[in-house]
Amino acid sequence: MNKRFVFLLTSLWLSHAGANETWIGRFESLGPEIPAPWQIQQVDPKIPPTRYRLRQWDGVYAVEAEAESSMALLGRPLTVDLEKTPILCWRWRVDAALQSADMRTKAGDDYAARIYLTFSVPAAQLDFGTRAKLALARSIYGNQLPDAAINYVWDNRLAPETLMNNAYTDRTRMIVVRSGNTDAGRWVAERRDVRADFRRAFGALNGQLNGIAIAVDTDNTKERAHAGFAEFHFVPAGQLCKSE
Predict the structure, then answer these.
(1) Helices (H), 123-237
(2) Which residue range forms the structural domain that includes residue 85?
(3) What is the tally of helices (H) and strands (E) in the chain?
(4) Residue 244 lies in a domain
(5) Where are the beta strands (DSSP E) in the chain?
């Protein structure tokens, strides 16, 4: 077969293969300021916020996060069709897993790194008790509290694929993606089927993904943590991530 023809076919296939990517966090700016629509969300003004800035880290354009007895999210709203692009891709790294964290308890609810996805759920699918709890919580914490959430976490002790309720609320489900220090100190690539993970976490509920945030938090354990996040994008189920 003519080499030029093969080259053209390959180029067309690669172009088509990447046509359905949805990038939500490329972070290629060289300035320290985080670009909109990403913004820092300080959950409790009494707790010092985790520090976030942009940097090129081992050749990767990334958000660098540093926590010291602190907590804040760096998040953005989004609209992604999980029927078309259910796979969330990203890269992250941590210097080390936290030492004293324990996601099974409120006192240990800290993470060297985590990805926080929020969902809206049709009111008709929530029972009266759940709607009442959400209404009470929103009266205290504000309307930003989601109907449902998934956290992908880099834990220190529980095995990958562990699924459990958050220590504070059963409206947030925690999924361990990495654990311990085996992969610490280097960039690692992840891909998660968000649609499948939501079904695993919440069963038959129809969740509409409406937000994402990253976080490094140590307000409970009073530890220090240093992590990076990069290359967030969604792809169809059969498509490779750009970082793979």
Answers:
(1) 128-141, 194-202
(2) 21-235
(3) 3, 13
(4) no
(5) 22-25, 39-41, 51-57, 60-68, 73-77, 87-94, 111-120, 148-155, 163-165, 172-179, 188-193, 208-217, 224-235
For residues 235 and 48, give the distance between their C-alpha atoms in angstroms, rounded to a whole number: 35
Distances (CA, A) of 80 to 5, 26, 105, 214: 36, 16, 32, 17
Return d(Cα 172, Cα 189) in angstroms, integer.
Answer: 24
Is 175 part of any domain? Answer: yes
Q: Does residue 172 lie in a domain region?
A: yes
- Which CATH number goes with the domain that contains 40? 2.60.120.260
Name the DSSP class of 71: -
pLDDT reported for residue 78: 93
Closest to 227 (Cα-Cα) out of 87, 30, 130, 94: 94
CA proximity to 207, closest of 77, 114, 83 = 83
DSSP one-letter code for 241: -
Residue 227 bridge partners (DSSP) = 65, 94
Examine residue 55 and state whether it is found in any structural domain, yes or no: yes
For tokens 């709890």, the residue is: 133
For residue 5, what pLDDT band results from cuts at 50, 70 and 90?
A: very low
State how beta strands 208-217 and 111-120 pair. antiparallel
User: Considering its fold, how many domains does the chain have in total?
Assistant: 1
74-84 confidence digits (pLDDT tens) = 999 999 999 99
